[in-house]
């Protein structure tokens, strides 16, 4: 029957869209892992590979967009299907940003390799591991259509924010103690910020999954423990002041 | 006639969506301007206002999303109308990020006000002015449906990238000369990065406008002159090394 055929094609197309998202997610996981690995092992070759792989991510995002537009134009989807398609656009955009941040971490690791090992680099794999777990869990939530799991990711990002804020202060103190470490310290600051932002994008995806499943946007404001924007670290005997205001979401 | 009535409502709804984007754009312009003003005048009160206004931007983005989903579900738009609606989702997301960056600049200006004036702050209004011009021009391109104007914005962002890279190096040297300036220098680094990112989002919007008008995505890679990720600044007699690789888009 032609109707059946049409339905089957429609389902196939939705599945293709889903698969493209899952492939992008897998790539995001491996790009983040490789960028951290490159930093820890001081492996500039691996770092270059991460930077080069980024084009593949952009191509996948373009594929998602083309598929989604096709489905919207030809299938005139409603309700859950419509949310599925619009959500795929949002998730693809977040995954693309995650990969951009991974590529930037990789790029900065190459700059770091031109200087002696900077002690605070030890914190990067800790942050990286947390970020990777957030991406993995949010992708599981997407595949399983599990809004509770997505909410768990949404709440877990707080830990990454806290790690970032404490590393931010440590790096400031580190640079003050030895001005020769300022270039390395600055790259580490931005690398840490990139990883913190990867966590933010994982929580964006969690919010999208919540909306996809429940059909209403998540209203609550997410708890934010990154206070680095208002941190003041003074030189000399360590003095740290932080105002109470929270990072803007 | 009922058909006319339906058409009229549809047009009204598209117009409402358009207006919401234009309002968001206006808010983005004024938030960026106010955050720069707060930094230059060391006006913490104004900075707090910028941070508080951010909730309004989030509300406007939610309004755009709700309107767009409604149009997609009820009107089953095709071709240009469909692109118009999907583009509004993308543009709203970029405008929301621009406002986040403005709020973060404002927040960091409050931290800066706790220390003496940091000399390199002079570069912030220069970067801010450029970023504001990019937002203004890309919004004009949107309102006028002018793809050439959008492409002009897309190319102009290069200047902002160059300003950012040179400020990045200046700030590193500044912090090396006086470790007491490291906290202020770090906040300025992130403020400059935020403004550079605002430019990137203006170019994203330019790309969306190109797609909205031409119906095909822009294929070229944008020239990128931000080389800060690979910059190495050594202490002592100023030595600057920059590899040739370009910032990841």
UniProtKB/TrEMBL annotation, chains A, B:
GO biological process, one term: intracellular phosphate ion homeostasis
Sorted UniProt keywords: Cytoplasm, Phosphate transport, Transport
Region annotated Disordered, chain positions: 221-249
Cell compartment(s), UniProt: Cytoplasm
A GO term from the CC aspect: cytoplasm
Database matches in Pfam families: PhoU (PF01895)
Gene3D superfamilies: Phosphate transport system protein phou homolog 2, domain 2
Domain of life where this protein originates: Bacteria
InterPro entries (alphabetical): PhoU (IPR028366), PhoU-like_sf (IPR038078), PhoU_dom (IPR026022)
Function: Plays a role in the regulation of phosphate uptake.
UniProt-listed NCBIfam families: phoU_full (TIGR02135)
Subunit structure and binding partners: Homodimer.
Family statement: Belongs to the PhoU family.
Full protein name: Phosphate-specific transport system accessory protein PhoU
Native source species: Aliidongia dinghuensis
């Amino acid at each position: 029957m032609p109707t059946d055929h049409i339905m089957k094609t429609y389902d196939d197309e939705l599945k293709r869209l889903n698969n493209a998202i899952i492939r992008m997610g897998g790539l995001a996981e491996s790009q983040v892992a490789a960028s951290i690995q490159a930093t820890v092992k001081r492996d500039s070759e691996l770092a270059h590979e991460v930077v080069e792989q980024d084009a593949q991510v952009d191509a996948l995002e373009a594929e998602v967009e083309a598929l989604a537009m096709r489905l919207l134009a030809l299938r005139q989807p409603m309700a859950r299907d419509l949310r599925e398609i619009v959500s795929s656009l949002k998730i693809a955009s977040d995954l693309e940003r995650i990969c951009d941040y991974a590529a930037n971490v990789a790029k900065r690791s190459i700059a770091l390799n031109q200087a002696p090992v900077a002690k605070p680099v030890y914190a990067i794999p800790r942050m990286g591991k947390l970020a990777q777990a957030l991406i993995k869990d949010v992708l599981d939530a997407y595949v399983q259509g599990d809004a509770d799991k997505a909410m768990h990711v949404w709440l877990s990002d707080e830990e990454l924010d806290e790690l970032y804020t404490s590393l931010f202060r440590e790096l400031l103190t580190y640079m003050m103690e030895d001005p020769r470490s300022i270039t390395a310290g600055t790259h580490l600051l931005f690398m840490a910020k990139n990883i913190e932002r990867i966590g933010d994008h994982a929580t964006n995806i969690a919010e999208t999954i919540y909306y996809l499943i429940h059909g209403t946007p998540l209203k609550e404001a997410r708890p934010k423990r990154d206070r680095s924007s208002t941190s003041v670290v003074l030189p000399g005997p360590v003095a740290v002041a932080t105002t109470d205001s929270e990072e803007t979401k």
